[in-house]
């Protein structure tokens, strides 16, 4: 079989305030490249080129232009929504494809972006139901001061209001901010039922440590009295938080490294063998791994690297991923994924306590998502994990 040569851009920061988790994205993409290039039946040979924007927004567009100058028209990259929105106009102008492998806040669509991370109906909606059912309907929202934090908190706020709940306060901090005293004091004063955390990177890690320390100093069991829930908390970030606050935290995601099954076990083993120095595998790493495999399958199906044929080939394309079946919706170019809720442990892994029984179709604009508190239909689709 004659193989198609595919130049692939990898646009991930491995330095800077959110470099730890973005590094796992790079690792997941590289692992997929190695597997595809070693597979004689793949029909595609990938030639990855990595550029590191250093978590600086102003570096993303020049990096994409540099890749385009090298003839690259497929890029797997970006972690933050601000970086994604910074480069999408370039992909649309040059009719290239961005393979975006990160959970995000939704309310976006582009025929030049393939979204393999979770949409809001995959992580925020199930989380709202879980929090309201288990803890109450009064939430405190904190986020990094950019679109991920703004929109995630908006969806949380609207979801609580529809369930006769409320947001007692909504606060934002600059990306990379680590001073948390005022935020922690306000949480303890307002006494919410839970905290919804949409901070990223070093800001998030600092918050977990500071909040746990403040609760301990006051004789408060933080996990029981002030549970903290996130849609962007993964295994390498638990290690970055450290023993001062990594356990007992809630994460809504479509992938955890502790998932059972031979497919996931093989993926984690291959990842650990390829990157023994870490960072450890994460939901982001799995989504990048899936994105590159879907790209290779779509190029092989199209018989070319040209954007138009590949875009048509990826519509409806599926893969048996470490998390389970993943399929690209032909209408939205988002992935159908399986929602899950996990609780972190002291060993930096997650116990999955709730999961959907099957992949859920993406609903990036939250048009068809049910919004009634714990609807019967959703209860039937979810199952408690023992």
Estimate the helix proportion, in percent. Answer: 40-55%
Write the CATH homologous superfamily of the largest domain: Response regulator
CATH class of the largest domain: Alpha Beta
**Under the CATH scheme, which architecture of the largest domain would be assigned?**
3-Layer(aba) Sandwich
Number of domains: 2
Quantity of strands, as a count = 16
User: What global shape is seen?
Assistant: globular
Q: Unreliable segments (pLDDT under 50, ≥5 consecutive)? A: 376-380
Number of helices: 13
Strand-and-helix sequence, N→C? EHEHEHEEHEHEHEHHEHEHHHEEEEEHE
- Give the structural class: alpha/beta
Average of the residue pLDDT scores = 95
Distance between the termini: 47 Å
Major sheet, described briefly?
8 strands, mixed
Structural overview:
The structure is a single chain. It contains 13 helices and 16 strands. With 386 residues, the chain is of the alpha/beta class. The chain has two domains: 4-117 and 260-336, Response regulator (Rossmann fold); 121-258 and 339-384, Rossmann fold. The longest helix is centred in the first third of the chain and has 20 residues, at 19-38. Strand 9 (228-230), helix 9 (235-241) and strand 10 form a beta-alpha-beta unit. Helix 1 runs parallel beside helix 11 (283-302) and helix 4 (120-134) crosses helix 5 (147-162).
